[in-house]
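Page 47, continued from p. 46.
Same chain as before, 134 aa.
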Amino acid sequence: MLGIELGPAAIAAVVGAIFVGALIQASLGPGAGLVVAPVLELVASNQLPQVLIASTLALSVVIAIRERSALRPAGLAWLIVGAVPGALAGLVLVRRISGPALQFLFAAIAADAQSFVASGVLIRSIQRPEFQTG
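Result:
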Protein backbone atom coordinates (compact mmCIF):
# COMPACT_ATOMS: atom_id res chain seq x y z
CA MET A 1 0.00 0.00 0.00
CA LEU A 2 2.68 2.50 0.97
CA GLY A 3 5.51 0.85 -0.94
CA ILE A 4 7.22 -0.25 2.28
CA GLU A 5 8.45 -3.82 2.28
CA LEU A 6 9.58 -4.83 5.75
CA GLY A 7 9.71 -8.32 7.14
CA PRO A 8 8.19 -9.32 10.47
CA ALA A 9 11.52 -8.96 12.31
CA ALA A 10 12.04 -5.41 11.00
CA ILE A 11 8.49 -4.42 11.93
CA ALA A 12 8.96 -5.90 15.39
CA ALA A 13 12.23 -3.98 15.81
CA VAL A 14 10.60 -0.67 14.83
CA VAL A 15 7.53 -1.23 17.02
CA GLY A 16 9.76 -2.28 19.92
CA ALA A 17 11.94 0.80 19.50
CA ILE A 18 8.87 3.05 19.44
CA PHE A 19 7.56 1.38 22.59
CA VAL A 20 10.86 1.69 24.49
CA GLY A 21 11.36 5.26 23.26
CA ALA A 22 7.84 6.19 24.38
CA LEU A 23 8.48 4.72 27.83
CA ILE A 24 11.70 6.69 28.18
CA GLN A 25 10.18 9.93 26.90
CA ALA A 26 7.08 9.64 29.05
CA SER A 27 9.28 9.07 32.10
CA LEU A 28 12.26 11.38 31.55
CA GLY A 29 11.32 13.87 28.83
CA PRO A 30 13.69 13.21 25.93
CA GLY A 31 14.14 9.77 24.51
CA ALA A 32 11.78 8.60 21.80
CA GLY A 33 13.73 10.03 18.90
CA LEU A 34 17.03 8.94 20.38
CA VAL A 35 15.87 5.33 20.51
CA VAL A 36 13.68 5.12 17.41
CA ALA A 37 15.91 6.93 14.91
CA PRO A 38 18.92 4.58 15.03
CA VAL A 39 16.67 1.52 14.68
CA LEU A 40 14.81 3.06 11.75
CA GLU A 41 18.09 4.01 10.12
CA LEU A 42 19.11 0.36 10.20
CA VAL A 43 15.87 -1.24 8.99
CA ALA A 44 14.00 1.40 6.98
CA SER A 45 16.16 4.47 6.43
CA ASN A 46 13.93 5.75 3.61
CA GLN A 47 11.02 5.93 6.09
CA LEU A 48 12.95 7.53 8.95
CA PRO A 49 11.58 11.09 8.91
CA GLN A 50 7.95 10.11 8.40
CA VAL A 51 7.79 7.38 11.03
CA LEU A 52 9.83 9.36 13.55
CA ILE A 53 7.74 12.51 13.20
CA ALA A 54 4.43 10.61 13.30
CA SER A 55 5.35 8.53 16.34
CA THR A 56 6.87 11.37 18.38
CA LEU A 57 4.03 13.74 17.48
CA ALA A 58 1.46 11.19 18.62
CA LEU A 59 3.40 10.61 21.83
CA SER A 60 3.72 14.34 22.49
CA VAL A 61 -0.04 14.83 22.04
CA VAL A 62 -0.82 12.01 24.47
CA ILE A 63 1.63 13.39 27.06
CA ALA A 64 0.25 16.93 26.61
CA ILE A 65 -3.30 15.66 27.20
CA ARG A 66 -2.21 13.72 30.28
CA GLU A 67 -0.26 16.70 31.68
CA ARG A 68 -2.65 19.43 30.51
CA SER A 69 -2.93 20.96 33.96
CA ALA A 70 0.80 21.74 33.89
CA LEU A 71 0.83 23.31 30.40
CA ARG A 72 1.64 26.99 30.11
CA PRO A 73 0.43 28.62 26.87
CA ALA A 74 3.31 31.12 26.84
CA GLY A 75 5.82 28.30 27.23
CA LEU A 76 4.19 26.35 24.43
CA ALA A 77 4.46 29.36 22.14
CA TRP A 78 8.21 29.62 22.87
CA LEU A 79 8.61 25.90 22.15
CA ILE A 80 7.07 26.38 18.72
CA VAL A 81 9.18 29.48 18.03
CA GLY A 82 12.29 27.49 18.92
CA ALA A 83 11.31 24.42 16.92
CA VAL A 84 10.76 26.19 13.60
CA PRO A 85 14.39 27.32 13.06
CA GLY A 86 15.64 23.91 14.21
CA ALA A 87 13.38 22.11 11.77
CA LEU A 88 14.41 24.40 8.92
CA ALA A 89 18.11 23.89 9.71
CA GLY A 90 17.55 20.13 9.75
CA LEU A 91 15.77 20.30 6.40
CA VAL A 92 18.65 22.24 4.85
CA LEU A 93 21.16 19.72 6.22
CA VAL A 94 19.22 16.74 4.87
CA ARG A 95 18.89 18.37 1.45
CA ARG A 96 22.61 19.20 1.19
CA ILE A 97 24.19 16.11 2.75
CA SER A 98 23.33 12.62 1.57
CA GLY A 99 24.44 9.02 1.74
CA PRO A 100 27.14 7.89 4.15
CA ALA A 101 28.00 11.44 5.25
CA LEU A 102 24.42 12.03 6.41
CA GLN A 103 24.31 8.65 8.13
CA PHE A 104 27.56 9.40 9.97
CA LEU A 105 26.38 12.88 10.98
CA PHE A 106 23.06 11.52 12.18
CA ALA A 107 24.73 8.72 14.17
CA ALA A 108 27.20 11.16 15.73
CA ILE A 109 24.45 13.57 16.79
CA ALA A 110 22.32 10.74 18.23
CA ALA A 111 25.28 9.26 20.14
CA ASP A 112 26.25 12.69 21.46
CA ALA A 113 22.70 13.42 22.61
CA GLN A 114 22.36 10.03 24.29
CA SER A 115 25.66 10.39 26.14
CA PHE A 116 24.77 13.93 27.23
CA VAL A 117 21.40 12.83 28.62
CA ALA A 118 22.99 9.83 30.33
CA SER A 119 25.72 11.97 31.91
CA GLY A 120 23.24 13.79 34.11
CA VAL A 121 24.96 17.15 33.52
CA LEU A 122 22.66 20.09 34.21
CA ILE A 123 22.95 23.27 32.17
CA ARG A 124 21.92 26.63 33.54
CA SER A 125 19.09 27.86 31.41
CA ILE A 126 18.59 31.27 29.88
CA GLN A 127 15.37 33.21 30.48
CA ARG A 128 13.43 31.23 27.88
CA PRO A 129 14.25 27.54 28.39
CA GLU A 130 11.27 26.63 26.23
CA PHE A 131 12.96 28.30 23.24
CA GLN A 132 16.10 26.22 23.81
CA THR A 133 14.05 23.06 24.09
CA GLY A 134 12.15 23.78 20.88
